[in-house]
Specification:
Blueprint: E1 3-5, H1 15-23, E2 26-32, H2 43-54, H3 56-62, E3 67-72, H4 87-94, E4 100-107, H5 113-128, E5 133-136, H6 142-156, E6 163-166, H7 173-179, E7 182-186, H8 195-205, E8 210-213, H9 225-235, H10 240-256, H11 264-272
Parallel strand pairs: 1-2, 2-3, 3-4, 4-5, 5-6, 6-7, 7-8
Helix pairs in contact: 8-9, 9-10
InterPro entries: Metal_Hydrolase, TatD-like, UCP005295
Keywords: Hydrolase, Metal-binding
GO molecular function: hydrolase activity
Length: 283
Amino acid sequence: MRIFDPHIHMTSRTTDDYERMAAAGIIAIVEPAFWLGQPRTSAGSFTDYFDSLVGWEPFRASQFGVRHHATIALNPKEANDPRCREVLDLLPRYLEKDGVVAVGEVGYDSMTPEEDEVFAAQLALAVEHELPALVHTPHRDKARGTERTLAVVAESGIDPGHVVVDHLNEVTVGLVRDSGCWLAFSIYPDTKMSPPRMVKILQEYGLERMLVNSAADWGRSDPLLTRATADAMLAAGFSDDDVDRVLWRNPVEFYGQSGRLDLSDVEQKEATFAGNSILRGGS
Ligand SMILES: [Zn+2]
């Protein structure tokens, strides 16, 4: 089984996680730029963080046979701090880099006017750089936040097929499906979405434009929940091909629109060796 986690914050994870992920078949990932818990007070902190996402972290991942890509943006929460606003001026330089496959995470946290402004500006950057956009939806007031998100996406003129709206649940899935955007679900240990709930959504809404991620970060989360969802799909009667579509081909198709997804290494390994145990050697 091969798994692509399209949203995971490896900066906050250990090498044990990389090792367990590779052993479970999670051999390609996208790490979106987000907030780090502790608020940053200057644009310089973002420069170092972005450099790490396109430099150090891909190297760390490669030691375990995991292919790492990044998305770059000023996140919705820190969009509210005027000291971080100049990050917008740093973005064009990063959006030209090879390992950057989208603009993200953008969107809403508390739905403030500052967030409106920064969200719209970054969707414009995605259009200008011909990149997809990864959109975070707020955890409070989710339905209203998702409606407003879709209105801003429509207004921006970006192709909805270039947009993934993330952290969806049973309440918001229908809204996003009708918009033409891609749909993403973060599987968490005890909030957001669980593997059994995810399986039900796939049974009801089908597999098209569906992405499943662990969104694992510095909070209570689990980088193996993409694999747990794949196993739950199989147990519920989905085929190996269905699992491959949701957990591999869909994220490859979405982020492949950047023209920068490079999976030659891991796909070759996958084709050469049956099973994933060989990846543990980190050769
Ligand atoms: Zn995230």
